[in-house]
Design brief:
- InterPro entries: FAD/NAD-bd_sf (IPR036188), GDP_dissociation_inhibitor (IPR018203), Rab_escort (IPR001738), RAE1_2_domI_C (IPR054420).
- It is built from 15 helices and 24 strands.
- It is α+β, with helices and mostly antiparallel strands and 613 residues long.
- The chain has an eight-stranded mixed sheet, sandwiched between helices.
- It starts with 9 loop residues before the first strand and ends in a 7-residue tail after the last strand.
Length: 613
Amino acid sequence: RNYYGGNWASFSFSGILSWIKENQQKTDISDECEDWRKLILENEEFISLSKKDKTIQHIEDFCFGDQDSTEDVEEAGALAKLPGFGASGAEGAAQESERECSPLESTLMETESQEPEKATGTESTSAMEGNGTEITSENESSCSTTSGESPLELGKTEAAPSENSAQPKKITYSQIVREGRRFNIDLVSKLLYSRGLLVDLLIKSNVSRYAEFKNATRILAFREGKVEQVPCSRADVFNSRQLTMVEKRMLMKFLTFCLEYEQHPEEYQDYEDSTFAQFLTTQKLTPSLQHFILHSIAMVSETDCSTLEGLQATKKFLQCLGRFGNTPFLFPLYGQGEIPQCFCRLSAVFGGVYCLRHSVQCLVVDKESGRCKAIVDHFGQRISANYFIVEDSYLPESICTNVCYRQISRAVLITDQSVLNTNSEQQVSILTVPPVDPGKPAVCVIELCSSTMTCMKDTYLVHLTCPSTKTAREDLEPVVLKLFDLNTQQETENVELEKPRVLWAVYFNMRDSSGVEKNTYDGLPSNVYICSGPDSALGNDCAVKQAETIFQEMFPTEEFCPPPPNPEDIIYDEDEIAPEGSEFSNSPETKPESSTEESSNGDTTAVKKEDNE
């Protein structure tokens, strides 16, 4: 691949168009040269790796906004050829199939084009229009707190009320193309639980210094055809006008029980074999409260989730409240694809090398021991190692004959306004839409505003996700039709817009290999470890657990992702000091000076986006 992160990646608008085109081409890549087979010795055999990524299927993309004339779109492409502009816009707009530009390059160029904006932003928020969050450990004395609970630094700039909220600005397709570098479109849609495994790992390993985060500002519910805000914190509950005083007391009593349910088994043990939805009906809760708890707080299935699983999910939600804001969730600025790049960066600081555009032909296996000895790359170069970690999509069909994969249905929309307009445009919202038909999964909707650095001003980026039952479009389009308007601007020009208008959309199915056990794969050498792609859950716990499990199997006596040493604590040997003027070094003791911007006490470190590349 020519980009970081596999199916965890984020793309600019031209990058996502290139990715769509690449995955719609079904032709397998044949070996140009078979000379690498000569490198296999008599006592060895090889396992050829897949040349085509088959984890993405049923891609369909649509443009619902005004499609300008060809000249306009070409103009947007020509802009990319001017000094200071990247080449990515030309490819996405004019669809120049002969001229290739990698999504990674477009990301780099996007960063460069955003640097002047960052310089003009306020110091506390960098380039953010809303709340920016820097994750730090809870025992750091230097960090400021919000409401006495939040152990981090928040920069607050209240967005001005929208003057034109009822009549959103007209956005055309060519504007989206021209502003394509403003978009960071995630292939996988997730949020970070503020007390989840990933946030703990980011703090422990100090990888959090390479990223910035924004609070999810509100939890929404879809009930009786309307979108409404869910009160989830104590303050929200008592300030809510949606709930009666009796409902407020009911809700607070039940949520208090959920926080300490393990101490009161008599309350739920008769319902352990029931679903969580059935348990809620016994708890003296009104139908609206049951709906809020099931779909917006626990966020679990109405039919498949047991009582204990529902109580655990509710407790996790409540425990994450108040750590970094009024909701349990954080979102990384510039998209979820920043997270793998942050870990890659720490790896690079200590000598790791990440090779883009570097394919691997095969694994070389010793016939006697059955262990993998080496790989052979597309240059015909043989690289030996003791351990090999392979992402599931690289495995050939011969190894995966007994594997049964699940699928995730995904949709990404660019819209012109929020699903629930308020006096602030800069909202990060999460909404769970319950299924219409029994047996169908609920759909998780995450709506991102422009201050998350994932879309251009006056637009929203909306992610829809659910476990697949059919193609992504068949699973998700009914929900899209409930929440959004798919008509063109001309058709709705003289009508008051009640729903946000979709400007562009893509649907696709993504393989979920997270539940596959290693022994399910046929003929896999013992020192080859398989990591899956993204799972369908909202959080990242599955990926963190998987990474730690693989690491501990390889190095049982080592600590997983230990805190890196502070630069001032490193003792240099003369032989390990990189010579002056050298561009980089693999020595773990060297660290690029430009990589961090240290605070005065050395505890909290923030890294500006423009330094990341």
